[in-house]
Amino acid sequence: MESLAIVGGGIGGLASAILLSKKGYKVTIYDKAKSPQPVGAGFLLQPPGQAVLHKLGILDKVLEQAVPIVGLQSKTLSGRSLLDLQYSRLKGSPRNGLGVQRSTIYQALLDEALSSSLVNMNWDSNVEECITKGDVVSVVCNETKVDYDLCVLSSGSNSTMANKYFKDRIHRPYGWGCLWTTFELPGTLAPNILHQRCESSKKMMGILPVRKSGEKYEAALYWSMKSADIEKLKRSDFPALKNEIMQFWPDAKNSLEHLGFDDFIAASYNDNWIPKPFKGRIVAIGDISHATSPQLGQGCTMALLDAWSLAKHLSKEDDSLESSLEEWWNTRKYQLSYVRQLSKFLTPLFQSESKLCEVFRDWLMAPVGRLPVFDNVQLKTLASDVLLRGASIELEE
Ligand SMILES: Cc1cc2nc3c(=O)[nH]c(=O)nc-3n(C[C@H](O)[C@H](O)[C@H](O)COP(=O)(O)OP(=O)(O)OC[C@H]3O[C@@H](n4cnc5c(N)ncnc54)[C@H](O)[C@@H]3O)c2cc1C
Question: What InterPro entries does the record tag this protein with (predicted)?
Fold first, then answer.
């Protein structure tokens, strides 16, 4: 195998391009965006995701603009603690999360990918299909058809491309999403915590510090809403909504005051799952294969781990492709399946209209979660330190 196509130059696609070009493959990335898209609000990047960035040689660059996050605090409006997870309580080596703008990671990945003479980037290239025939896969885009030895599909959560090749792919919208924005972190909030406030299971707001600029911090704000309500939201509805947000969390009032409708981005979430995400000469990684709702803060880290592990397992020997992909998936499927199932279980506790979910969360899950054994499970889950299998050893090398 010599030449690889990557469909989707987002987080997983760019990381794959860097890693695979380092192994000597000629890589062509196709992205439907007309030009680079350093956009998005923010991620909580977990320790294994940081380790992948370190392997890629871009962690220091990202750290310059990221904020160390030492814990997650989720409270009800009345101040009752629902979750208080501190990375410092994790057993083993000291770790923390990173609050980081998507644009920071994206730009660092893009610069690194484009610095390789083996990586070719095609913008404005909405791939229509990939056709596998024998030992080649043809990528069809902009009325051209180019043959490759392997195609990595990394076209994100909403992409339906994979449906053609993986008939058993699950793609279910969650029904709830968020409005996102970035704003100045209110001075009353600690700059190293992911803060969350909930009222029943219907209302939730989160504030994640993502960048330090001078003495101030920028933060990503997310406001949970039903997807149907997001779709109906009009410019004229915005002042009332902003008022509701400011009353919900008065600390945020001053920082929000000057923001308008256009400063907010709508995001919808999907439950995606491909039971076996490789077939012939096509392999799917990242959100197209296993998107979840972002409550657990795992999406970016999972895409980076997919890319890392895939590059590790691919070999230039053509006849071992099927077994290489099988081995790759064996290192990824347990963690990804765990994250997906947990996300499906937890999301309604924070984003639904169910009274039962609220009672369960506040009166059972929260107190039980404080017991040391569950606290440890929650912490390991948050830090993406579960079912890493071979990947953790490789990352620590
Ligand atoms: C613009 C944007 C902003 C985002 N902002 C946030 C955020 O603020 N917070 C958060 O938690 N997550 C955000 N995400 C999602 C986050 O990037 C992913 O959850 C995670 O990083 C996994 O990434 P991925 O590589 O699977 O896909 P993504 O990073 O989503 O990348 C998918 C890429 O595929 C391209 N693409 C799609 N279809 C095609 C096609 N047919 N042909 C060619 N290219 C195609 C897209 O243009 C995109 O560049 C954002 C994603 C995007 C694309």
Answer: FAD-bd, FAD/NAD-bd_sf, FAD_aromatic-hydroxylase
Q: Is the CB of 180 under 6 A from ligand 1?
A: yes
Q: Whose CA is nearest to atom 2 of ligand 1?
A: 40
**Confidence band, pLDDT 50/70/90 cuts, at residue 179:** very high
Beta carbons within 8 Å of 132's beta carbon, 6+ residues apart = 138, 165, 279, 280, 281, 282
CA 371 to ligand 1 center in whole angstroms: 37
Residues of the chain above pLDDT 70, percent: 97
Using DSSP, state whether 61 is helix, strand or coil. helix
Q: Are 3 and 120 in contact (CB under 8 A)?
A: no
More confident residue, 206 or 357: 206
pTM above 0.70, yes or no: yes
- Answer whether CATH 3.50.50.60 is correct for domain 3-66+102-172+271-396: yes
Give me ligand 1 centre to Cα 155, in Å.
7
Summarised one tens digit per residue, pLDDT across range 209-226 is: 999 988 899 999 999 999
Instruction: Decide if pLDDT at 396 tops 80.
Output: no
Q: Is the CB of 207 under 6 A from ligand 1?
A: no
Look up residue 76 and give its amino acid.
Answer: T
**Closest by Cα among 181, 201, 125 to 354:** 201
179 vs 358, more confident = 179
Query: Is residue 397's pLDDT more than 80?
Result: no
Distance from the CA of 161 to the center of ligand 1, in angstroms?
14
Q: Which residues pair with 219 in a beta bridge?
A: 183, 209
Instruction: Decide whether any atom of ligand 1 lies within 6 Å of the 31 Cβ.
Output: yes
d(CA 272, ligand 1 centre) in Å: 14
The half-sphere exposure of 382 on its side-chain side, counting CA atoms within 13 A, is 25
